[in-house]
Write a sequence for this structure.
């Protein structure tokens, strides 16, 4: 997710694996500071994969799913003896979805000589502070959820893309794909008058910008463009402005803790049109916050539904068997693939290495060349570190659940 801070096929309703909660943690044998597994052997050298994600607060449901999915990948690698002579561990840090806290987490991980890679972050705004710290320490970073294009291709990514940090990769697709995907879906539904609202954060603003550009270029009209303060709880002022513009839908750039109440308050005020958001909204907690009037609201998310893919089913079964306290969340599969991208790289970089720190640059180089079939599809990176996969899904609230409405490969669609 770009602020979290990026897109279906006829499948079953989103599985319980995506029904998130925000409590508990995992025992040390598969989790923070541990990550051993039965394949560990006395005398093995140790390498650590860090995790930076919101493990507390409003977005902890997603953060915990990321953490546990990395723990699962590490446990499986240890159990199978994937890297002879080495035991992998996980060190998960809570960034609280705050940029400065994320920077502190990155600094702590960079100071640990055993750390060879980091999975994270969830939020693009946090990634902006984390990237330079990990790059300076030559630690590879693979995000399962950052969707802002500038993180990999720079601020001029549309006209003059330039890789920002050679250490940075991601397994999800980006807002310049997700925003147009959402716009295309609404236009295909005959909706040509839309109001936009965003939360002024990196993710939300970037998503709305990408949506707006495509929507206008293909015959749509943005009848109102408003913002909210994410710390507010009463949105009547912006709702009044938007309602007066008579939109047929509202596109929101931000996350579920704000869009849920926004949608509920808007419907109560008589603005009875679908609200649509990005992957930062795709969470069962959105439906809880938006209430009964959430029916018909929409969200896009990266990839096809995990439970519609063969490897996705295997991942969900292994995750359930591991007994984690929280479900894998919307980004669990992408975090699992991110961890395995690092592990694949370590198979090369740690071979013959005397210590983890000395293998950091070799790990960066090796991760850039990985190419394997992951839970979410082919895992491989382009020259900017972005995922080569451009699959996204639209989900619709029906019967109190997120139901897949459409999955499309935007690379094949030419977008």
């Amino acid at each position: 997710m770009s602020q979290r801070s990026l897109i279906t096929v006829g499948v079953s309703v989103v599985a319980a694996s995506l029904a998130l909660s925000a409590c508990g943690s995992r025992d040390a044998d598969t989790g923070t500071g541990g990550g051993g597994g039965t394949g560990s052997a006395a005398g093995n050298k140790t390498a650590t994969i860090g995790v930076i994600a919101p493990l507390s607060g409003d977005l902890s449901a997603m953060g915990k799913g990321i953490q546990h999915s990395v723990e699962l990948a590490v446990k499986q690698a240890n159990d199978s003896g994937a890297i002879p002579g080495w035991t992998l561990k996980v060190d998960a840090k809570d960034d609280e979805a705050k940029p400065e806290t994320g920077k502190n987490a990155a600094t702590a991980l960079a100071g640990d000589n055993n750390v060879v890679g980091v999975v994270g972050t969830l939020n693009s705004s946090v990634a902006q502070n984390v990237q330079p710290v990990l790059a300076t320490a030559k630690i590879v970073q693979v995000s399962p959820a950052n969707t802002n294009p500038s993180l990999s291709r720079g601020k001029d990514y549309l006209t003059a893309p330039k890789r920002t940090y050679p250490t940075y990769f991601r397994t999800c697709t980006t807002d310049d794909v997700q925003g147009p995907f959402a716009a295309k879906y609404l236009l295909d539904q005959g909706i040509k008058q839309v109001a936009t609202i965003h939360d002024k954060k990196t993710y939300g603003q970037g998503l709305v910008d990408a949506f707006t550009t495509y929507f206008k270029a293909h015959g749509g009209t943005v009848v109102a463009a408003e913002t909210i303060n994410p710390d507010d709880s009463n949105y009547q002022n912006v709702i009044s402005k938007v309602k007066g513009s008579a939109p047929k839908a509202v596109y929101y750039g931000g996350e579920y803790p704000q869009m849920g109440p926004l949608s509920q308050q808007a419907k109560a005020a008589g603005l009875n049109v679908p609200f649509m958001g990005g992957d930062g909204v795709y969470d069962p907690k959105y439906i809880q916050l938006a209430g009964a009037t959430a029916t018909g609201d929409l969200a896009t998310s990266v990839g096809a539904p995990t439970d519609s893919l063969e490897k996705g089913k295997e991942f969900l079964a292994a995750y359930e068997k591991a007994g984690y306290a929280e479900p894998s969340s919307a980004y669990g599969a992408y975090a699992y693939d991110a961890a395995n991208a690092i592990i694949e790289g370590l198979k090369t970089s740690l071979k013959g290495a005397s210590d983890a720190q000395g293998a950091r640059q070799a790990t960066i180089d090796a991760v850039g060349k990985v190419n394997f079939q992951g839970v979410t599809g082919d895992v491989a990176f382009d020259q900017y570190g972005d995922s080569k996969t451009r699959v996204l899904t639209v989900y619709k609230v029906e019967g109190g659940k997120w139901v897949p409405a459409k999955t499309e490969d935007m690379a094949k669609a030419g977008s």
